[in-house]
From TrEMBL:
<dbReference type="InterPro" id="IPR003593">
    <property type="entry name" value="AAA+_ATPase"/>
</dbReference>
<comment type="similarity">
    <text>Belongs to the ABC transporter superfamily.</text>
</comment>
<keyword id="KW-0547">Nucleotide-binding</keyword>
<keyword id="KW-0067">ATP-binding</keyword>
<dbReference type="GO" id="GO:0005886">
    <property type="term" value="C:plasma membrane"/>
</dbReference>
<dbReference type="InterPro" id="IPR017871">
    <property type="entry name" value="ABC_transporter-like_CS"/>
</dbReference>
<dbReference type="InterPro" id="IPR027417">
    <property type="entry name" value="P-loop_NTPase"/>
</dbReference>
<protein>
    <submittedName>
        <fullName>ABC transporter ATP-binding protein</fullName>
    </submittedName>
</protein>
<feature type="domain" description="ABC transporter">
    <location>
        <begin position="4"/>
        <end position="231"/>
    </location>
</feature>
<dbReference type="InterPro" id="IPR050763">
    <property type="entry name" value="ABC_transporter_ATP-binding"/>
</dbReference>
<keyword id="KW-0813">Transport</keyword>
<dbReference type="GO" id="GO:0046677">
    <property type="term" value="P:response to antibiotic"/>
</dbReference>
<dbReference type="InterPro" id="IPR025302">
    <property type="entry name" value="DrrA1/2-like_C"/>
</dbReference>
<dbReference type="GO" id="GO:0016887">
    <property type="term" value="F:ATP hydrolysis activity"/>
</dbReference>
<keyword id="KW-0046">Antibiotic resistance</keyword>
<dbReference type="GO" id="GO:0005524">
    <property type="term" value="F:ATP binding"/>
</dbReference>
<dbReference type="InterPro" id="IPR003439">
    <property type="entry name" value="ABC_transporter-like_ATP-bd"/>
</dbReference>
């Protein structure tokens, strides 16, 4: 199986380019983090994968074949704009949605019981959705994406507004589905969570995929950083070191970024010239650092 493939998807609204040859894949059993600034094209990509929108060019495939209406019956989708019926009871709604995806009445009821129990809302099955807290509505929305036992999961900001306990529950569920071989793609602005959960991450800017890989690959590809504790150094002690950019200073600690060709030994020499060096540590940028660097790069013209 090849999982879910997004192949050179493009979408334009008049003069606005929403997607420009968006390309990535989500492999079976993989958690894929889909990150980018607001308006970068994440939701548009997901809606095209679901068939809610049509692409101007490109193709969406599952298991090597174009996605059809039948394929989409087996996709679990959680939209950013939550789509539950507010006056419908939780169990009634989930059973109804499972039936729409082709489950028998008995299987739909059993799956509703399973997922409301698993997601901690079993006691609210007979409550109207509008009477639930926002966090519990979020749990029910995830249950709606899972109740028909999908083969693919596409989740738009599934962790938005959740408390830490609910985040842990949802994280565990996503890991379980991936362990069953389900391709899972989700967007999120919580980059620490993406870094912790995901097998691979794609960073989107202006409708294009600009970086994709494991967190380790992305971090190793970013500019290295140095943390240097120089208690007797004055401001600007590292300004003359070739290829080095000062990111900031807190107390006696200076944080530096090494550009292409920069030598950390030159930094060490400059630091020692100021007096004692209490710390000299090389660090890789976090996913959040890399994200800031990528999304603030000059936009690609349409």
């Amino acid at each position: 199986m090849t999982g879910l493939e997004i192949d050179a998807i493009s979408k334009r609204y008049g003069d606005v380019v929403a997607l420009r040859e968006m390309t990535f894949d989500v492999r079976p059993g993989e958690l894929f983090g889909f990150v980018g600034s607001n308006g970068a094209g994440k939701t548009t990509t997901m809606r095209i994968a679901l068939g809610v929108l049509s692409a101007d060019a490109g193709e969406v495939r599952y298991d090597g074949q174009p996605v059809t209406h039948e394929t989409r019956r087996h996709i679990g989708y959680m939209p950013e704009e939550r789509g539950l019926y507010p006056k419908m009871k939780v169990a009634e709604q989930l059973t109804y949605l499972a039936r729409l995806h082709g489950m028998s009445a008995a299987d739909a009821r059993a799956s509703t019981e399973k997922w409301t129990e698993r997601l901690g809302v079993a006691a609210r099955r007979e409550d109207e959705v509008q009477k639930l807290s926002l966090g519990n509505q979020q749990r029910v929305q995830l249950a709606a994406a899972l109740v028909h036992e999908p083969r693919i999961l596409v989740l738009d900001e599934p962790f938005s507004g959740l408390d830490p306990v609910a985040v842990d529950v949802m994280s565990a569920v996503l890991k379980e589905k991936a362990a069953e071989g389900v391709p899972v793609v989700f967007s999120s602005h919580q980059l620490d969570l993406v870094e912790r959960l995901c097998d691979r991450v794609g960073i989107v800017r202006s409708g294009q995929m600009v970086e994709v890989g494991t967190v380790g690959e992305l971090r190793s590809g970013g500019a290295a950083r140095l943390r240097v504790d120089v208690p007797e150094a004055g401001d600007g002690w590292a300004d003359g070191v070739p290829g080095v950019r000062v990111l900031g200073r807190k107390g006696t600690v200076t944080e530096l970024e090494l550009g292409a060709g920069a030598d950390d030994q030159d930094v060490l020499k400059a630091a020692l010239a100021t007096g004692p060096v209490r710390e000299f540590a090389r660090e890789q940028p976090s996913l959040a650092d890399l994200f800031r660097s990528v999304v603030t790069t000059e936009e690609v013209p349409a």
